[in-house]
C-alpha cells in the first residue's frame, strides 16, 4: 500500500466543485481523462511486457481505455458545441518508458490509485 | 641448473585486480620476474579470493601456465556469485615453478572495493534488475548508507532465503530459484527510517533458457520463396523484450536470412531465395538466459509444398464425374488426388493418371458412381518428382450425378377382400432394398389386366406420396403390375397375380380346414417366425398388421429368399399386450399361396379381464366356481395359460389340503390352486370346513403374469346335515325311547313280564296248548326250575 501511495505521483488537478461553472468542470474533466488515457496507454504497454499472461487484467485495461476514449470524444464534442472550446492544454506525467521494471509497476499503481481517489 | 631450479622461487612481482560489473567478475592480471619468462618456465600459481567482511579465504584455485619470452602478463577471471558492488574483494597469488617444490611468498592482497555508499541518497539493492535461470542459485544484497542500519530486506512473493548480515550490507541467497507462478519477484529494502528515500526496490525475473524447436522445417511453393516454420516450444516465463528472439542464417551463402519472424500458434519466416537451390538454414533462438540452434539442410526441389488447386469445375454423367481445376504452380510437375465423400459417409481417394504441369488442363475422373446422387469432392496435389507434402485441399465441391432409369424393382403386395360379384384388392407397394430411384419426380404406375385377356388393361398413376390403392375386380384371374417412373424412364415392372376367385375359394377352404394358427414367441428384438421350407417357391412373404384393432390396420409385409425359413419380425408399431397375426405365403411365378399362420405377442401382459364367477355351488365342505363365458381368444393381452383359484378362511392362515401357500404383498396368506387348461372354466375347492366363512378369487394368467388380487368373493359354508342326522339318531331317539319306557314301564312290565305265577295275564306269552279251559297252564315237565319257593301269601293260597 505504501508503495502505491499516490501522494507523489503527478495527476491533473481537479479543483472544481458543484458551484463551479459548468464549462470549467468540463475542461477539468477533459484534462483528467486525457491524462488518464495516456497513463492507461503506458500501463497497458508495461503490463503486456511484464505480465502478458494475466489476460483478465489486460482485458480490463483495454476496456477501461475504450471507455475513457469514449468519454474524451463526448467531452470534445460538448466543449466544442456548447462552449466553443476547441483546444485544451493537457499536462501529461512522466512516461514510464525506460524506467526500471519496479518503477513502471509503481507508477502505474500510483496513477490508478490517484484516479480512483479523484473519481 | 636442475638442482638450482628446485630451490628457486619466482615471486609475483605484479598484481592488478579490476571489476567487470557487466559480467560480475574479477579480472586478475599478474606477472613474475623476467627471468622466468626468459627461461620459459612452466609454473603453477595459487590464487586466493577473499571478501572484505569475511576473514577466511572463500575461493582458492590453482592455475598452470607456461611463460613465454614475450613477457606478457598472465590473466585469470573469477565469476562472483554475489554482486561485486555489495562488498570489497581481495586477491593474492603465490607461485611455484613446476620443477620446484617450493612456493614463493604470497603477494599482498590486492583489493577492489564494493560500491562507495558515502554519497548515496538511500539504500541500494544489487542487482537492481536481473533475469535468473530457474533452478540456479542467486544472491542479492542491500547496501545501507553510512550510519544507517537496514531494518527490512525481503522478497515478494516470500520465498525461502538464506540471510547474511554484515555491517552495512545484508545478503539474501536463494537456492534453486523457481518461477513461483508469478511474472517477477519484487525485492524490498528499508533502512531504519520511513521517508521515501529510506527505501529501495528491485525486480527480478525467473525464467528459462529457450528450447530448441524440434520441428524446424523449410519448404517452398514455387521454388522462389522459401518459408521455414517451427513451434515455439515451452514457456520461458520471459516476456516483452526478454521473450525469445529468432534469427535465421543461410550457411552456404553466409547471409542472414532477410525475413521477419511472425509467431501465433506456430512461427514462420519467408524470403526469396533467388536461384539458390541447396540451402542450409540455421535458426537461432535466444533470450537473456541462453540460445539454441537448429538446422535444416535441403534441396528446394525436394521441398515443394504446392498451393491448393483452385477453381474446380466438373463434367458429369449418371455414373461418372470428371473434375477440372487450375494449377498455381508454374513450371512444377504435380501429381494430384481427389477425395470423394460418398453418401454413406465413406471416403474414397482417386489418383490422377499421370502428372500435370500448370499449362495442361489437369483433371481426374471418378467412375462407378450412383445416378442422381450427391458427392462431395476436393483435390490436393503434391510434387510429381521428389514428393514432399500434399498441398492443402481445394475447396470442396458438391456434385450431383445425372438421372438414370430407376434400377431394381418395387416390392408389391395385396390384401384381397371378397365382395359381391368379385373382389376388392388393396395393392401396397414400397421400394425394395435393391430399388434406386436414380432421379426425381418419382411416380408410380399401376396396371391391371385379366390374365386371359391382356388387351383390356387399365392403369392409374400415383405420385410418390402414395403407397397403396384399392382396385375392384371381378372373379377372374388378374395380373397386377407396378412400375416406378422418373424424368428419364420407367423401372422394370413388379408383377403380382391375383388368382381367380374359385382358386381363392379353394385356398380359403384349405385355410379353414387345415391351417392352424400356431403360437409364436416374442423376444426383446421382435417376434420370431419360422415356417416349413418348401422347395417349389421362389420366395416367401410374411405379412401382418401393425395395428390389428384398427381399420385400415396398416398392413406390412416382408419378403424372404427361397432358402429362408425363419425371420425375426420387428416393427416400431409393435407394443406389448397386442396380439399380432402373421400369414406366411409362398410365391412362385408371381403367385402367392398361403402356407402357414402364426400368432403371437411381442411381450405378453397380464389379462385385461379377470374371470367373472357366474355360478357358485356350495356344500358344507366344498365350493364349485364356474366362469364359463370368460373369453380366452384374441381380445386378451396375452395367451391365457390357465387360472389360479385363491382361497382363505377369513380369520386364519391357509391350510387347505392340496393347495400351495401364496403370500400377498400385505403378508396375508392364501391357498392357491392352479388350473393349467384355459378351457377348464369350472373348479371345485374341497376340504373346506362347514359353517365357516371363506374368501375366494379366480384369476386368469398369461406368460406376462396376472393382475393383482383386489376383489374377493365371500362364502359361508353351511352346516354339515349328515352330522345332524347322526346326532338325532344316536342321542335324541334313544332318549325318547327311554323316556317312553319309563313312562309306560308298568304297562310294559305287565305286558311282557307279568308277575309269576299269573302268566295268563301276559299278553306276550301265549301257550295255546297249555290252556285248561281259559286258563293258561305251564307244564311242569317243560320247565326245569332253578329254584323252588313256597309262596304263603294269600294270593298263592287262592291258587
Low-confidence stretches of chain B: none
Report the portion of residues of chain B in β strands. 35-45%
CATH superfamily of the largest domain in chain B: Immunoglobulins
The percent of residues in helical segments of chain A reads 55-70%
| The CATH C-level class name of the largest domain in chain B | Mainly Beta
Rg over C-alpha atoms of chain A, rounded to the nearest angstrom: 15 Å
Structural class of chain A: mainly alpha
Largest sheet of chain A: none
Biggest chain contact:
A-B, 14 and 13 residues
Give the SSE order of chain A as H and E letters: HHH
Radius of gyration of chain B: 62 Å
CATH class of chain A: Mainly Alpha
Question: What CATH architecture of the largest domain in chain B would you give?
Answer: Sandwich
Compute the number of strand runs of chain A: 0
CATH 2nd-level architecture of chain A = Up-down Bundle
- Give the biggest beta sheet of chain B: 5 strands, mixed
Q: Bin the helical content of chain B.
A: under 10%
Count up the helices of chain A: 3
Explain what you see:
Chain A has three helices and no strands. Helix content of chain A is 64%, strand content 0%. Chain A has 119 residues and is mainly α. Chain A has a single domain (2-118), classed as Up-down Bundle (Growth Hormone, Chain: A). The mean pLDDT of chain A is 88. With 799 residues, chain B is mainly beta. Chain B has seven domains: 2-112, Immunoglobulin-like (Sandwich); 124-207, Immunoglobulins (Immunoglobulin-like, Sandwich); 217-302, Immunoglobulin-like (Sandwich); 310-400, Immunoglobulins (Immunoglobulin-like, Sandwich); 410-505, Immunoglobulins (Immunoglobulin-like, Sandwich), CATH 2.60.40; 513-601, Immunoglobulin-like (Sandwich), CATH 2.60.40.10; 613-721, Immunoglobulins (Immunoglobulin-like), CATH 2.60.40. Chain B is built from six helices and 55 strands. In chain B, the strands form 15 sheets. Chain B has a five-stranded mixed β-sheet, with no helix packed on it. Chain B has a five-stranded antiparallel β-sheet with strand order 49-50-48-52-53, with no helix packed on it. A four-stranded antiparallel β-sheet of chain B has the order 4-3-6-7, with no helix packed on it. In chain B, a hairpin with a 5-residue loop joins strand 26 and strand 27 (347-351). The relative contact order of chain B is 0.04. The mean pLDDT of chain B is 87. Chain A binds chain B through residues 3, 8, 48-54, 100-102, 105-106, and chain B through 128-129, 183-184, 186, 196, 201-203, 205, 239-241. Chain A: It is found in: Secreted. Chain A: Keywords: Cytokine, Secreted. Chain A: InterPro entries: 4_helix_cytokine-like_core, Leukemia_IF, Leukemia_IF/oncostatin.
